[in-house]
Amino acid sequence: MKKFFPILLLAFVSLFIFSCDNNDDVVGDGDTYSQMRDVTGNFTSANSYAFTQGINIASTDVVLVYRNLGAAWQLIPKMEYLPNVTGMPTGREFQYNFVFDTQNVQIRIDDENFNLATGLTSAEANQYLNNQRFRIVLVPASGSKNSNVNYEDYNSVIKYYNLDDSKVINTVVTK
């Protein structure tokens, strides 16, 4: 009986050690916490229709960028097709896009088929170029592997990653 008790005790302790393993955490990967940051800026010819926001993430993590549309957030990249206006080129289009690395996110306008400096009315420039607000959402890549979260739907993303959008850091780009 004296030899049986230590073996039974070891088996009992081992049961608790393995049951406390937390490798089933699908939302976090242990080194990245989901976070958000707002950046507001103007797209101009002086900044080559792009501005940059500093970040710090692992190279395996995911960056999502949403453009503010007032009451909603729209995932980019997003192609914009402008209506025909008298005195402006026809078939005007451009794309909000972004690129990122572990240190920066650059939000920019790509694939424009007209001169943005002269091919927009003042109302269109205000709507598409001036004071544009974007929300950068950093999420761990491991959380996206097995999830059914709809990344197009901003509200689904913040719900899935338990993000509080009332505590977002705001940055204004002045360049």
UniProtKB/TrEMBL annotation:
Alphabetically ordered keywords of this record: Signal
Domain of life of the organism encoding this protein: Bacteria
Signal peptide limits: 1-19
Protein name per Swiss-Prot or TrEMBL: Uncharacterized protein
Organism from which the protein derives: Chryseobacterium cheonjiense
Origin organism lineage: Bacteria, Pseudomonadati, Bacteroidota, Flavobacteriia, Flavobacteriales
